[in-house]
Amino acid sequence: MLDEIFQRSEDAFHHWKTFRVSQRAEILKSLHQIVYKEKDQISEVISNATGKPKIEALTSEVIPVLDLLLYFTKKAPRILKEKTRPLHLLMQKKSIISYEPYGTVLIVSPWNYPLSIPMGDIVLALLAGNVVLLKPSEVTEPVSQLIQDLFSRSDVPKDVVQVIFGGGDVGQKLVSSERIHKISFTGSTATGQKILEAAAKNITPSTMELGGKDAAIVLKDAPLQKTIEGIVWGAFMNAGQTCASIQRVYVQRDSVQRFVEGVVAQTQTLKLETDVGAITLPQQLERYESQLEDAVRKGAKILCGGQKEERNGRPFFQPTVLVNCTDDMEIVKTETFGPMLPILMFDTEEEVIGRVNRSPYGLCASIWTKNKTKAIQMAHQIQAGTVTINDAVFTHALCETPWGGTKKSGIGRAHGEEGLKSFCQVKHINYDRIGLKPFWWYPYTRQSLDIAGELADMVGKPTAWGRFKAMLRFLVVYLFK
Ligand code: NDP
Question: Is the CB of 186 under 6 A from ligand 1?
Fold first, then answer.
């Protein structure tokens, strides 16, 4: 069965790759209009499949997809335009840089944002001229059906996007195939490691968007009320099931008491279902309980939440705030992926940067302060793909900017110009502007050695004047001897 799927992709690729980027963009605009007209029904399907509030389905899934389609159908032709690159040394030659598709791109996506994560990759892969096999999570199958249906009703030709239903075993078979020319994976670090092992066998280029343990750093001059509201949202939106959720907060000693009181008061206003959605994958409850147990055993105190609940047949977990937390607790070290907010204390900026960077993850971090200059300086020292100041989580929805992590949070970047180009093979074409025989070809003579000596001076002399004189001598020896 997979053979037939690969064959259909390869046949579709022969046709799709012949389109110009602007033609592909025009075709994808049809999808933009379908998504816009059906935004309410789509949000409903996402909300039912995941248990997230409908407003979150609209703001974090549907709107980012509309914006991505709008932005990239306009910008991709310019970003992927073939460019000439003048050479500063070998000026008799010229280079062309072009961006070419890989062929069949496999996108493996998780259940937490079952529309916006795969669509972010699919749209960019298609604009770059690839065809796509999507292996979404089987946990959110109704949304995957919807993606298939949206493409089938758009102007995108048949088989340019194929959705493959099935679990991790199907994913494993796909990533191991040499008929996949590029993998874009979003999911846990553990699965990412398995995929990289399989990809290594065929040297399949792979982008990895993996787990996180994002820290928020609250400096003593942080705007208190805004910080409290931002951090509570960053920790509990999507019930904390976001790779970039705030999962640990470091608060400067002087502000701890006021911050904790405010966070607890704000958290207690949140209502399950309306503000904090369901736990999409019920197996996660065990991890929440064991992390809480470990934290309490090591001295943490739960100030609110801490219990699971069932509503309308779905599992929920109360948004939970903990204090007296320390760096050795599982809830501070390991990805939680749930509505949990452990609060820690720090004294100096240097100390907190060290503690934040000690994590094996490096997806995002946030700094909360009124001092933008200081925050930007600190941001440069934090090992993370994205650092936000006085905000968190939302940057996945920005289509212009790159998204991705450092360390065990991933390899490569999605979104932005960087994400679009990650679906391309960069080709370099070089040709002669004037028909000089390269001096480095055979035969190796006394003259070629002299020319090489002048070239070494041209790139090695310490002053511009010295390098200029060497260039004149180089031209004389090369052209006239
Ligand atoms: P998983 O790693 O469990 O699954 C991700 C996808 O991989 C699913 O489609 C899954 O299929 C599939 N899969 C599972 N095993 C294999 C395998 N051996 N080979 C190929 N594919 C496989 O992640 P979750 O779905 O549980 O998502 C949560 C994780 O994703 C968290 O760690 C979170 O931090 C991370 N994430 C990272 C993001 C980022 O941008 N950095 C964004 C969103 C989430 P199936 O589900 O059908 O079993």
Answer: yes
